[in-house]
Amino acid sequence: MAEALLAGVLLAWLGLLALCLGLERHYRQVLGGSASPLRLRLLRLSGWLLSGLALYACSLVWGLSMGVVAWLGLLSLCGLALVLLLPLAPRLVLGRPLLGGMGWLLLLVLRL
Asked: What is the rounded distance in angstroms from the CA atom of residue 73 to the CA atom of residue 52?
């Protein structure tokens, strides 16, 4: 259960981050430089797909009815964290998924 919850948080964060980076202004703020329209479109598409995968992970843990509620809560928390981190430390938003991914792998290894 903890692995699926952490996967839901990571997928929600990555989905919102990709949607955020799909905007030219935020792309320039976080990564520097400008992006092609195709790259921005792919970032937005991957953001929606990752958010959908976060919904799937939440529905695996809590079932569909409570999974949707948990997914909306995770999106709200990740969105709040993203909104607070972008003006203060734009590069930090890229490092959080790496730490979360390592934590998720650690949970999987400890379960074995």
From this structure: 14
Of the chain, the percentage scoring pLDDT greater than 70 comes to 82
Print the domain residue range for 10. 2-111
pTM: 0.82
Tally of domains within the chain = 1
Cβ atoms within 10 Å of 103's Cβ, excluding its own:
14
Buried b (16+ CB within 10 A) or exposed e, 36-47: eeeebeebbebb
DSSP 33: S
Give per-residue pLDDT as tens, 34-73: 889 999 999 999 999 999 999 998 998 889 999 999 999 9
Burial class (CB in 10 A: 0-12, 13-18, 19+), 63: exposed
